Amino acid sequence: MTIVQSMKQPFAPSSGYKGFSQQQLAVSPLTRKSALRLRKFPRSAHRSFPKTVRAAVETPEPEKLGKLEEKSSLPLYKSMDQEDIPGKPRIVVLGSGWASMSFIKSLPVSVARNYDIAVVSPRNYFLYTPLLPAVASGTCEERSIVEPVRNFVVGKANFFEATCQEVDTKNKRIVCCFPKDAGFSEACFQVPYDILVVAVGSTQNTFGCPGVEENCMFFKSIEDAKRLRMQISECFERAALPYTTEEERQKLLSFVIVGGGPTGIEVAAEVHDMVTENLKRLYPELMKYVKIRVVELMDHVLGTYDRAISEYTAQQFNRSGIELVINSRVSGVTPKAVEVFNTKTEQTEEIPYGACVWATGIKMHPLVKQIQQALPEGTQDHFRCLVTDKYLRVKGSDGTIFCLGDAGTISQEQAQARAAELFKEGDTDGDGKLQLRELRDILIKGSKDFPQLAEYAVFLDGKAGSLRFGSLVKKVLSAMKGNSKAEQTEILLGELDMSSELTLEQFEELLSKIDAGLRGLPATAQVANQQGQYLARILGRTTLTPETDLSECDGFDYSHKGSLAYIGQDKAVLDQPLIGSLFGFGVGILWKGYETYGQFSTRNRVLVAVDWLRSKIFGRDISRI
User: Fold this and answer.
1) For the segment 299-333, what is each residue's pLDDT rounded down to a tens digit?
2) What are the φ and ψ backbone dihedral angles of 60, each rounded to 5 degrees?
3) For site-directed labelling of 420, which of 5, 112, 124, 495 has its Cα 20 to 30 A away?
């Protein structure tokens, strides 16, 4: 197999790579194909070891990172753009998820032509992840929520279906390999870059729990959703066999979901809908054995939502027969049962299962770890992702690397460290104290460098008598029950009035409490989508190079639009900052409309809408094909 170096010059696969010598690769195609097949997992391992199989395609092997042999001899990619402009900056984008595809989609063709853009990903499609649970239950078909990457890059970028194995931050090159496929050997090449955009996401975190990787299904890819769908169908067919014992039926039809966040709740809801709306009619004699459980460490599910939503979800699940195993953590998973430890009673229970879904926790992607280690010491110390500045530039990269989505986190500077400087600047009358208006003014001014001050500045703006629209909105929000930011603001500043004065010590204490409320951005599609759009806007304003001064540009400012989650039986919940908490059938209709409209193309919108109607009218297809 060859990789195209230019329109006329082919690449040759690298020699002696990953356990194959030149002699082995030089044998006849039939012999080579047979040898490669011997290295693959048997089909039975596909279900038993889901992460192991998936990792071969989606993530590079950690032991291979930084150990590629003869990198200098690998073919070097040159632009295939026939109108290549000398000195045109090359931007290499890693990944094909929310952040990277949002960036490419938002980038105007007129702007993209000013750059030589290459997208590298082992997955040649974009996946609309919020509807993965619907695919697992058969409500939506897998093809309805995927979009080929090449549809996004037409006229804007080149795309290479390959895994980035290593990033050479010193020489500004990445090493990519096309995975072994259809009997072909692995082909590797290098891509130099001026700007690297890292958007590879994260991987599932097992927290060192024994047996998870071997026995559980993760839930991050289309393969995971398909695997769960097939497993549920297989469990029902096995349970329907005449020789299956009562005990075995109870085990086969026990479905355990670990994690009470949005993903775990939606998986449980979709599985329940599939059972009650379709399988109940087809397997009526088996319904008494079906049990769906959600294991959650906290004392309530949907911990990032308003508490009223958590309580409503718990009530709906109890009515539906879905058991919430709260205050519990998984201590181990065997091929037959999930070992659950109750943190309150300190007792361990074994829950038999036919299918166990691990839907909790994320950790650093192996490639992100390699980049982190390659950057100057002291610049990167986060345990899960790369630290960036407010412009999404990776610290220690000299402006050559940007990071989007789950792979990065924005450094949030502590305002308390500059308390004395801010106090001196705010004390305009020099009396050694800050009056209310002085405090308001310095918080407004300081919010440019410390965004966490903005909420408090606008609150004080209302206290000081301003009639600005922003102040009125914030005053309304502060009265809303469940708005944690507004409640925190009221706690810290609610007792201040026009006669209040703060000394330097009191001002330092106030900033320290404000800083304590800092939280990293959530690892959600909404954040990644907005970051991709932000980077596209940056490219539209200025020619982006490592030397570009971005001080005239605004930093990334995440705007939370709200959170939706499906909880089953055509009901959903909504946690929205402006209107508060909503739930029920009406929100269920809103959820379906939002997830349909949120597709990246008209084609997918039509397919998803048709899937909703098909599953309601004709039911879900339970065939195992």
Assistant:
1) 999 998 999 999 999 999 999 999 999 999 999 99
2) -70, 150
3) 495
Closest CA to 327 of 308, 311, 318, 340: 340
Q: Which two tokens stand for residue 594?
A: 């939002």
Indicate yes or no: pTM above 0.70.
yes
Any bridge partners for residue 340, and if so which?
330, 349
Q: How far is CA 111 from the centre of its chain?
A: 27
Neighbouring C-alpha atoms within 13 Å toward the C-beta of 504:
13
Judge contact between 134 and 270, C-beta under 8 A.
yes
C-alpha distances out from residue 167 to 88, 115, 349, Å: 21, 20, 45
Interacting residues of 603 by C-beta distance below 8 A, sequence separation 6+? 147
Summarised one tens digit per residue, pLDDT across range 85-144 is: 567 899 999 999 999 999 999 999 999 999 999 999 999 999 999 999 999 999 999 999
H/E element, 611 = helix 602-618
Neighbour tally for 234: CB within 10 Å: 15
The CA angle 324-328-331, to the nearest 5 degrees, is 125
Whether the Cβ atoms of residue 119 and residue 96 lie closer than 8 Å to each other: yes
Task: Write out the E strands in 172-317.
Answer: 173-178, 187-192, 195-198, 203-204, 217-218, 254-258, 291-295
Domains 75-122+162-202+364-412+522-558 and 222-363+561-618 alike in fold: yes
Contact 250, 335 (CB under 8 A): no
The one-letter code for the residue type at 592 is K
CATH number of 75-122+162-202+364-412+522-558: 3.50.50.60
Helices (H), 258-306: 262-274, 280-282
Residue 389, phi-psi category: left (phi > 0), alpha (psi -120 to 50), beta (remainder):
beta
For residue 442, the model assigns a pLDDT of 85
Q: What is the 3-state secondary structure (H, E, C) of 426-462?
A: HCCCCCCCEEHHHHHHHHHHHCCCCHHHHHHHHHHHH
Assign 361 to helix, strand or coil.
coil
The C-alpha torsion from 473 through 479 and 484 to 486, rounded to 10°, is 50
The burial class, CB within 10 Å (0-12 / 13-18 / 19+), for 78 is middle
The CATH number of 222-363+561-618 is which of 3.20.20.70, 1.10.443.10, 3.50.50.100, 2.60.40.60?
3.50.50.100
Residue 368, amino acid: V
Q: Are 389 and 410 in contact (CB under 8 A)?
A: yes
How many Å is the maximal CA-CA distance in the chain? 89
Instruction: Report the candidate in 553, 617, 592, 618 with the shortest Cα–Cα distance to residue 134.
Output: 592
Distance CA 574, CA 262 (A): 11
Q: For residue 207, give Cα distances in angstroms to 181, 295, 402, 440.
A: 32, 15, 28, 44
Residue extents of the structural domains in the chain: 75-122+162-202+364-412+522-558, 222-363+561-618, 415-517
